[in-house]
Design brief:
Layout: E1 5-12, E2 15-16, H1 18-21, E3 25-33, E4 40-46, E5 63-71, E6 80-95, E7 100-106, H2 113-116, E8 118-126, H3 128-139, E9 142-146, E10 170-173, E11 177-179, E12 187-189, E13 193-200, E14 207-211, E15 220-223, E16 228-230, E17 242-251, H4 252-262, E18 266-270, E19 273-277, H5 279-282, E20 289-291, E21 298-303, E22 311-316, E23 325-330, E24 335-339, H6 345-360, E25 364-371, E26 381-384, E27 392-403, E28 407-415
Parallel strand pairs: 9-19, 20-26, 22-24
Antiparallel strand pairs: 1-2, 1-5, 3-4, 3-27, 4-7, 5-6, 6-7, 8-17, 10-13, 10-16, 11-12, 13-14, 14-15, 18-19, 21-25, 22-23, 25-28, 26-27, 27-28
Amino acid sequence: MRARTAEIEITYNGVPASDKMADSELECTYTDPASGEADGLDISIHDRDRKWINSWLPQTGDRLTAAIALKNWDSSGTDRRLDCGSFVLDTFTFSGWPISGTISAVSVPADGNFRARKRSKVWENITLQEIGKDIAGRAGITLVWDVGSSQKVEQPTEAAPASPPKVGDIVEFTGTRHYVSSNGNTGYACKPGKAKVTQTYNGKHPYHLIHISGGGSTVYGWVDAADVKQAAAESSEYEFTIKCEEQEDQTDCEFYAELCEKYGLAMKVYNRKIVVYDREEYKKKPAVLVLTETDLQAWSWQQRMSGTYTGGEFAYTPAKTSKEIKVTLGTQERALKLSGKADSQADAERQLKAAINKENHGRVTLSATIMGNAALAASQCVEVQGLGSLSGKYYIDKVTHNIGGGYTMDLEMSLVE
């Protein structure tokens, strides 16, 4: 039987460097968090011949790629490869004696402004996805929006003929004039936006519209058919419009990560991409692997009761009034109390739901060390068996790959409840 081996393949500033580094590389750690921080690559080296502190001295901004190459891993002749992605050198340290060092890199864009330059900007009448596209474009990377049925690939398709709007429909009013009657001759100025069809009549202006809250329109009357468009159906609950959000002295990375978290989404940077997804939906996906007690080289389990909630309350004051409004979700047995800025009751409910889910995630955690498996990644689910009442379906919050004298993985997981 052929020997099982695990190696790290590295390119350094576009040049294959695995062979060059083989004599000095001691251990490599690749950290794959589900969200909240960038992927990380740490390479421990020795420098007995003093190349690294002289001609090979790293420079901040150097670019690396890494992959884990497994040979004869699952069985003889079975090879696997895990692409760890692209990284930018972040820090490097040396110490002695003997001389050793650590090279640390993170999966952020080559444009260092993404996580270094602080900006101030007011974002108005825009969706979370549109903000992400803007920020990703400025950093020279791609936004992967894996939320609901709204995916990154946006190929135009030929739409089926739309049926005429009917009473009760929410439509997009594109005109600027409304009339007091269906056959009226004098029109009055109004603003376009979303509105509700309240009446129809076979006249010159066949639709009676009334503006809806937050839709931007001031229409209240009869309008031309050419000015009424069917409102696009929202493919997910996250396609709402943010009226106003202030980025105040924050990097794009900090601001967008916090904004996604505020509305219950997870964001991570991986291989020149900003990936945004719904963690609660990912937790509903089937387990990709079963881990039995024999797979666990070491493990630790923990449960907490403090900081978990059965519901909550969010208090906010609308901009046009001084009256405080409170929205509630769930039961108030153990309620999370919040107050802050919200565009509407629906916006307050979104923020409250996200905050409750965030606090309740990780009530039960399991940390485990297993033999390396290139198929496992953070944000997946696994089924743990053989630990009695501690068994169950777990969501992977972080994976740390350890290569050097073997290949193991440290998993940090939360019970899916």
